[in-house]
Structures are given as C-alpha cells and as structure tokens.
Design goal:
The protein has one domain: NAD(P)-binding Rossmann-like Domain (Rossmann fold, 3-Layer(aba) Sandwich). The protein is built from 8 helices and 7 strands; from the N terminus they run βαβαβαβαβαβαααβ. A 7-stranded parallel beta sheet has the order 3-2-1-4-5-6-7, sandwiched between helices. The protein is 44% helix and 14% strand.
Amino acid sequence: MGKLDGKTALITGADSGIGQATAVVFARDGADVVVHYLEDRAGADETRAHIEGLGRRASVVQADIGQEADVERMFDEALAAMGKLDILMNNAGVDASGTNVADLTTEVWDRAIRTNVYGTFFCCRRFIQHRRDNGGKGKIINVTSVHDTIPRAGAADYDASKGAIANITTTLALELAPLHINVNSIGPGMVLTPFNQEAIDDPKVRREQTDSIPWKRAARPEEVGKLALYLASEDADYVTGSTYYIDGGLMQNQGQGA
C-alpha cells in the first residue's frame, strides 16, 4: 500500500517540471491528483495521462492563481470532480525578471508578487477553509527557493516573493496546529525544469551554472517530488513550519573564496 492511498492532492503548476514530477510521484504512491495549469493545456493533459496510467484519478483545472475569482473557481471545480482535497502543493510561480530595482517597473514587480504571494495566499485560504469544514487535518507544501534566504542581483521581485511565502508558511504552521494541518516549504536550488531551459539544452551553459554547486549538478524534478511525498505523508505528521532546502549544498557554498 502507498503512503498516500485514499488521499487527493491539488498541485498548482503541474503541467511541467517540479509540479508534473510530483504529481506522478504522488499518483505512484496512491493519490488522486488535481492538475492545475495556466496556459499549457497539452502539458497538463500529459500529466493527467501519466496519473491515469498509474491507475489513479486525475482532473485538470485552469486558473490564473494571482486572481482571487480564478482560485475560487479552481477549487470549486476540483471539489466537484474529486469530492475532497487532503493535500495542497503551491508550486506555480513566476521566475525573476533579471531586472535591477532601479529599472524594475511596477507592472513586473506586481506580476511576481501577485502570482507568487497572492496566489499562495488565495490557495492556502481556500484549502484551509475546506479542511476546517471537514474536521481538520491535511498537508500544505509551499515551494519557495534557496532565494527565500540568499539574494540574487536582478531578482528582487522573485526573492521578495519567495521570502514572503516562507513567512506565510511559518505563520500558518502556528495557526493551523490546532487543526492538525501541517504546513512546510521546499526550497529548491537549481532544478532542470523549463525555468532553466537554456541549461537543459546546452551542456556548456549547464556546466557553468552548476560549477558553484558543491554536488556539481542540478536537481532532477522527481527528486523534489520525492521530498514532497515525504511531507505529504503521515510520516511527516510531526513536521510543521519547516523549510527543506534541496540544492546540492549550494547554500553552504556562499562566502567561500572571499
């Protein structure tokens, strides 16, 4: 028997990368999965095919998680299809703009904050209300980044949004302990996802980017998915308010050579 037998998960941004890999890991371990996407319907259908190929139920929902009405509709559709939700993984997000603050437009800043911070807030709020109405318990997994702690020039929009998610996580861990809802974060370093498409396509770029990682490679999406599986399972019932960094030692390498 899988650790997630009888559980239903909603994973945002499950059309590719970490979200898609986690959906497959969850399904392999017994979960039914709601697959969220923003624009890539083909990717979402591919994820659904993987899940159904493992003998689990899957439902595909489209939403802009930065829009409150979209999130409400997404949960309505998910609950209509599945009946309940036990696990929420907030994985969808936008990457850094690569623009220094002096040249960062309000529009670009708002896009990162609305998607990454408001999206997490909207999804957590609705999931909590659902679990509270159904006796509590449940798991929330928020995907932050090593950059919720360590800065990167040209990434103020992304760094600030991921730092906010880390603080939402710890606050919710306190608020939801009486309901036995666990809230944790995963902070990936470099992962071979579409966010790093150039490194996937060009081995030279990949070597240059992984040179600062002690493990000398990027993470595979399924490695993040397996960590999410632990946090979603009963094995992690006593784990809350924690961030698990999966970065090949990258964060430990800061300040070396100075």
